[in-house]
């Protein structure tokens, strides 16, 4: 599903080595945490998968495609296959919950009939059918993140990338979001999540790839161990 072979990333202006000799294989349907302190390389790793950055050396294969060879004009089409969830939700404030989710389908030119069928199903999955016509500022933080997750899955991605999705949420709400992501993963969608929340990682007991100084220092199933 996802393979990084000999990946290094150096930022040209600062000559800072953000990632060094990264070799990772993530199978289809896995749930993987990327953990590490600030500056460990988590954000760089995620941006490489999203093709927001290019590696300085190495290859990155996603769904059997070497994404380092994707031409710039084809990047939007590559990203259509991905679901992305951010810490700050990034909902459109002038659109309702329904419209925010529908918009993700509209930009890939999905028919109106399919949108009308799919959006209610996504809302039901995330437990927000009763909030369809609310605007983002009428929702709690947890509800907004559920909308963001519904938007991320609406086009049936094979991979969801989550960048600190519980960072702005209280512990109880965070657990609800993680259970939702766990349910989505159980249906076969691969989930990669960058986080610094040790409690969440310990609770989930999934595969944990720990980064330190741009290098992999641990790759195992279980909690966020202190030595990581």
Automatic annotation (TrEMBL):
Quaternary structure, from the entry: Homodimer. Forms a membrane-associated complex with FtsX.
Broad class of where this protein is predominantly found: membrane
Family recorded in the similarity comment: Belongs to the ABC transporter superfamily.
Function: Part of the ABC transporter FtsEX involved in cellular division.
PANTHER family: CELL DIVISION ATP-BINDING PROTEIN FTSE, IMPORT ATP-BINDING PROTEIN
Parts forming coiled coils: none
Gene Ontology CC annotation, any one: plasma membrane
Keyword Membrane: yes
Domain of life: Bacteria
One term of GO molecular function: transmembrane transporter activity
Compartments, record wording: Cell membrane
Descriptive protein name: Cell division ATP-binding protein FtsE
Domain ABC transporter: 2-228
Keyword annotations of the record: ATP-binding, Cell cycle, Cell division, Cell membrane, Membrane, Nucleotide-binding
Topology term for the membrane: Peripheral membrane protein
InterPro entries reported for this sequence: AAA+_ATPase, ABC_transporter-like_ATP-bd, ABC_transporter-like_CS, ABC_transpr_LolD-like, Cell_div_FtsE, P-loop_NTPase
GO biological process, one term: cell division
The organism's taxonomic lineage, starting at the top: Bacteria, Bacillati, Bacillota, Clostridia, Eubacteriales
